Amino acid sequence: MAAIISLFEIILLCVGATLFIATPGVKFSEAVSSGIVLAFIILSCIFQTAFLIGQPSLAFILEGFTIIGCLLILKKQKKYLILYYHKCKSFYRQNKLISILLLISWIYLGLQAILLPPANWDSMTYNLARVLLFQQEKSLYLSNITTFRQAVFPVSSDILHHIFLRYYTDYGIGIFSFLAYISVGFGTYALSRRYTSCEISLMATLVIVSLPEFVYQATSTKNDIITVAAAIFCFLTVHRLLEKLNINDLILLILCLLFGFSSKTTFMAFIIPFTLLFGLLLLRKYRLGIWIKLISQNRWSLILLIVPAFILSQIWLFIHNYNFWGGWSGPNSEVLKYQQSSGLKGGIANLVRYIFQTCDFLNPSDIIFNRIFGFTISGTLQKIYEYFLAPVLGDAGLHKDYSFNILWQLHEDGSWFGPFGFLLIIPGIIYSILTGPKSLKALSLTLLGYVFIVVYQIVWMPWNNRFFSLFFASSGVCIAYLIKSVKIRQNLLIKIIKYTSIFILFFSCAINSNKPLLLSPNKILTGSDLIPFKWPYTVVNDSIWAKTNLGSNRLYYAERHYGDQRVSLFTKLIPVDSKIALVTGENTWIYHYLLLNPDVKFTSVSLSSLKSSALEFDYILCLQLKCNLNNIPPNSSVLWYSTSSTQQGKLIQLKR
User: Fold this and answer.
1) Cis preceding linkage at 532, omega within 30
2) Per-residue pLDDT tens for 628-647?
3) Phi, psi of 414, deg, nearest 5
């Protein structure tokens, strides 16, 4: 019930924010896209404010006032609800088949986001785990942590999950990623409509919402997809400002730029070129006197902006990081591990590697080529790189623990952006830079600048695909502009792209290594274990819906990760109000322990300090370490012990 109430609140906030954006000059798609992100910003500010004050329960009061405001907006702007209903109805009549296919896939993704338990590795260690630690400590300043990532990273997107986790339920937890995905889809259509026809805009939107990595992120709990929605919001808002300078859009733009940065620090790679390029366009169009007049006439609005801007800026967090960890973004020794240190050569080397990875024609094409011709496309690309480029580039730009490999994987951490990422998006951006109007050139150069900063600053790692979601998923308008220029058989080309995109979308929805609809991807693509099999038993039991019992088994991913039922066993053994010394490795999954035991106090303790502090606790939970505890009280007893070599664990009851 708590999850249902939270979902209803989120939808109400999105509708209210959409109607707030709605004006006679704003299209339906633009209002929906911007309204979703604005709802995120409002909710994030509410939660951060409550935690910074040290009173998380204050959020309920602030949410109450916000809901009242949304209801008043609904009453005032109800004419737009009727108008938007008729627009949706008209769109459906004109694009019946596409609408049905798109609706089927989006409903399925929505069900995944709401019903399935979270599975992302980063979320288990810090994205979601840190929110539960915020709740335990009633503060956003964490020192009781198992990894520095829980304490030092910006919180604006992660804190959104508090709306569910404060009830210690994670049903519905993926709704923010799914709504961000929807926001990008609507925003792509809205941006494209500024430059092209409805038909081409719809085609471009279908390309973007079918990008495999983007589809996988639509049901995740990572923050990358939210930064994409923020980027689209900024593009839409700055286009409105270029049409007519007004204080509302200026404030919204400032807040969204801060929200994107406070969701993920790599968003700064977007802010820098965006501010330079669009700032130049705005300054050229509006004289200095106009800006001074706008500011002087709206000084109270700008003064009120200071509080949410300060909260979203994360200055308070960066100061704490510097004082506590020695660096604004965390321990300098850890930060340096992920900074590319080979200079220009490393940046060029990484750019070349990412171009090779962008040539992603999906795993099935590799299987087909291998069976017909005896080689794979990805393997051929790998050999070309190793033979011609590896001797020149060497290890420049690489993380010291990884070697460069081209793998077309079918899950969030390893997938790229499908064939259209290489065949349409990159040519579209280049074409827009060369021939587009000034605003489109600025948009394309912003995306290109983002890529250059990322490849120069961050070392290459196998899962860096997520950093490029902003580049690929924000580029739909460039695809639309490219196809608009095609004069020969344009209608046929549009249809081919449309229905190929729909096929890729359905494929990505169904074939996901972490969340297979029916058979697991390996069985489908390689044919292993398919003959003989019993229909429907084999197929049904391989589905994520069967494995999680339609999502009711919230520990499915924990049990798969650990290889046992240690989390549920811990919950049964540990009484309420117990004090637990948590001894873990840097990358331990602690999320499920925190989620299922809200009345237990967890304190992260190192092995070296346990000798002097053991008597402060009732139990010791040791995970992913050998945990040879020779200095605990002699009467203590081991309640549970795992001999697994990769997922060691021990639960010890201390006797005082």
Assistant:
1) yes
2) 766 666 778 888 888 776 67
3) -125, -10
